Every structure is written in structure tokens, then in C-alpha cells.
Amino acid sequence: MKIIICGAGQVGSNIASYLAAENNNVTVIDHKADLTQRLSDRLDVRTVIGHASNPTILEQAGAEDAEMLVAVTQSDEVNMVACQVAHSLFSVPTKVARIRNQAYLESRFSDLFTRDNLPIDVVISPEIEVARAIRRRLDVPGAFDMFSVADDLVRVVGVICTDRCPIIHTPLRQLTGLFPDLNIEIVAIIRGERKIIPDSNDRMLPGDEVYFVADSRHMQRAMSAFGHEEPAARRIVVVGGGNVGLFLGRELEANISGVSVRIVESNKQRAEFVAGQLDKAIVLNGDGLDEEILREANVAGAETTVAVTNDDQVNILVSLLAKRSNCPHAITLLNKTDYTALVSALGIDAVVNPRSITASTVLQHVRRGRIKSVHSLRDGFAEIIEAEALETSSLLNVPLKDVRLPNGVLIGAIVRGDEVIIGRPNAVIKPHDRVILLSAAQSVRKIEKLFAVRLEFF
């Protein structure tokens, strides 16, 4: 697939890394030569120096036969114009733009991004996506990661195995027999630097980070099996009143009943603005690293502290201060993945990475075949994919134990109507089932082919 990425910053380079690893034809545009040089030194991508909204620059990047343009520069306006030029002059089929200024996304301006006005097919607001990702983690206390697929009938959850976990040291093939009511499928184990797509002989060890697939209706039982029975958070402190903090406040007020939210923001004018945008949240003006402010926010009495300032180091320190104040759960926003292993060792419970979240959103529109959704795991070593099985698929009507899947692929669940079938060896895929699977990065193209529409379908 020929893809143009506008912007070689953190998000653009991260998306380029994902796509180049899958042998896509990727060209990256940026007006900063040092960024494009670093990218071309590290990745197998072509780079063009210039402004992404310039028609000549887009032409040099190969827009005439590009299949997708992803505009993620620092300027919303450049992103929008780049999509307009790509559509009007080069007829690029799919245009994706990152829009951060929320004025453009107000409901009263909903007609702005249409083919007759600004022809942008997919609008990404990283701050909104991050706020939703944090709220999803709060939905499952004890999880360091969680996202839903198949209209929330299935959830993919990341948990840390502790010594309290009753199913550690047990070979995965024995879990069903020993725990017959444990209706989950374990699809990934992260052990230090090792990333494992497990087989039936693998077992979980204390300290492992484990991803499993489960029926959403059985989440409480699934979390109990991992020793996580934490109560749902109802008292939440958010440090950072930027766009992420504001959107998170809105998400919490709209989706969690009886929630008490306190937001700490260092800029007085911004604090006043955030207070005016929320109905119930209490907004405090002060430094999140000031222990007196944290006491005033009652961090010690909160179930969860969320650090979402624009400084990774501040977020880490805020989370450590919260944990020292006996707040049981801390969630930290980190832009630099270099810090991820560090914060886990420090006892911070969950990390949210905007680059990974944005990349997952883009990948949903890159994937071919009947792919419904895509979620990238831990620096892109694997993807959780939701796909529809068509009548021509070779996966149909055969027990999963007899299906020849590509290496590094596990089927976690099958959704048939409202029924969720966990991917046991005797489970069978029927036409139009939604299949939830994990695929190693190197096997994604093979998965796309398995779920592609063939001529016999028509």
C-alpha cells in the first residue's frame, strides 16, 4: 500500500515505523530536515523535505498514485489543507487528519469535514482518544490496559500477575480443567523484555504482564482469577487540566455514576476555564508536585490518581507522590516509550501512550479485508484484530484445533450475534462471525488475506 505521512514528529514517526515494518510503500513529509534525516536513517521509508500542504511537495511525495494520506503535523490547518489538496488535485482515496483544536470538532460544525467541504475521511483527536483510553482502564479496576471490541461484547484486558494470582505456574492447557468457569483466552505474555505469544505449554509467572480475551459479562470473575478484586474508582484525582484532563473529566461525568473528580491545574486561567466546562468536578489551581495541593485534592482518599500533564517526568513524579500518599492506583500519561519499563518497576499501575493509541486508530484504516478494528499492543509487537468471516474464508466450519493459522496467530473469541464463544480447540467459525484474534506483526498480511473478499463472494 502506498501511504504518505505528513509530519515526522513523534506520532508520524511512530505510524511510519508500524507501516514500514509491514513492507508498505511509505513516504514521510516534514519541513524539518533533521527529523526526516533521523527517520530515513532508522526506517525503510522515503522522505521529502517541505510543507505538507504544498501541492508541489505532495506531488514529489507521489500523491498522484497514493492510496492514503495521513496528516499528523503540529498544525491542524496544515493537516486540513493537505487533505484538501490531496483530494482536489490528486484524488487520494483515503485522507486521515489529526485535529487538536476542539473548535473544529464542535457538533454545530459537524458538516465541516464532508466531501463537499473539507474532504477528510477520518478525523483523529489524540486528546479525546487518550481520555477515552484512560476511562476504559477505570472501567476494569486492576487492569493496566483494556479495550473493547465487537460492540463491547468482548474485552481485551492487560493485567499484572502477582503472587496472589491463583492461576500462575499452571500450564495454559490445564486452565480449563482446573478452572472450568474461567471463560478467557490468554493471548500474550510480557516478561521483562520478552514478548511471548503463548502456546498450551506456557505458563504465567509472578510479575508477568498478561493480555487475555474475555466475554464482557464475565469480567469480574476473570479479574478475580488473576487476584484483582479492586473496587471501582469513585474518587478520582486528575493532575493536568489540559485537553486530556478536560476530556477525561467529561468522560467520567458522563459515564460513571456517583463519581467524584478533582482536577489540579497549574495555570490559573486554564483552571478557571476547565471549571466552567465541567458540571460537578472540583478544579484546584496549583502545582501537582506540591504535596500541600495534593493533600487539598485528597489524593490519600482517592482510589485513583491520573497524571496527564504535558511533561512525562512530572507525570511520573506525581504518580509516585500519589502512591506514597497511599492512593492505591496511579495512571500515568507518557509520550516517551523509553520510560515505560521504568515506571512499571516503580510501582505505577498503568501507562497510557498517545502515540500507540493514535497509531491503532490509523491502522484500522490501513488494514485490508473485512477488518473491523485494530489495536496495537506494546510497541507494535502484535495486534488485536476484529474481522468478519465471509463465506469464502478457509477458516469456516472447521474446529480451531484443525485450522492452519499463520505462525504467531491466536484466536481469542468468536462473536455470533450476541453470543461470545471463547477460542477453545473445538470452537467453529461460521459465516459472518466476528473473529477476535491476536496476530504477531509479521503475520498481519496473512491475516488480511484470510479475511479478504474473494471473487466467489460476488
Which CATH-level-2 architecture of the largest domain? 3-Layer(aba) Sandwich
Q: Specify the overall morphology.
A: globular
Strand order of the largest sheet: 3-2-1-4-5-6
Q: So what's the CATH class of the largest domain?
A: Alpha Beta
Work out the radius of gyration.
23 Å
CATH homologous superfamily label of the largest domain: NAD(P)-binding Rossmann-like Domain
N-to-C CA distance: 24 Å
The share of residues in helices is 25-40%
Count of discrete domains: 3
Main β-sheet description:
6 strands, parallel
What is the number of helical segments per DSSP (H or I, 4+ residues)? 14
Q: Total strand count, please?
A: 22
Can you tag this structure with a few keywords?
458 residues; alpha/beta; Rossmann fold; Alpha-Beta Plaits; 3 domains; 22 strands; 30% helix; 26% strand; globular
Description:
This protein has 458 residues and is of the alpha/beta class. The chain folds into three domains: 2-124, Rossmann fold; 235-352, NAD(P)-binding Rossmann-like Domain (Rossmann fold); 363-457, Alpha-Beta Plaits (2-Layer Sandwich). Helix content is 30%, strand content 26%. It has helices at 10-21, 33-42, 55-60, 76-90, 126-139, 175-178, 219-225, 243-255, 268-277, 291-296, 312-324, 340-345, 354-366, 444-450, and strands spanning 2-6, 25-30, 46-49, 68-71, 94-98, 122-124, 145-149, 154-160, 184-191, 194-196, 209-215, 235-239, 260-265, 282-285, 304-307, 329-333, 350-352, 371-377, 382-388, 409-416, 419-422, 434-440. It has a six-stranded parallel sheet with strand order 3-2-1-4-5-6, sandwiched between helices. Strands 14-13-12-15-16-17 form a six-stranded parallel sheet, sandwiched between helices. A five-stranded antiparallel sheet has the order 7-8-11-9-10. Helix 12 links the parallel strand 16 and strand 17. Helix 5 (126-139) crosses helix 13 (354-366). 45% of the residues are buried.
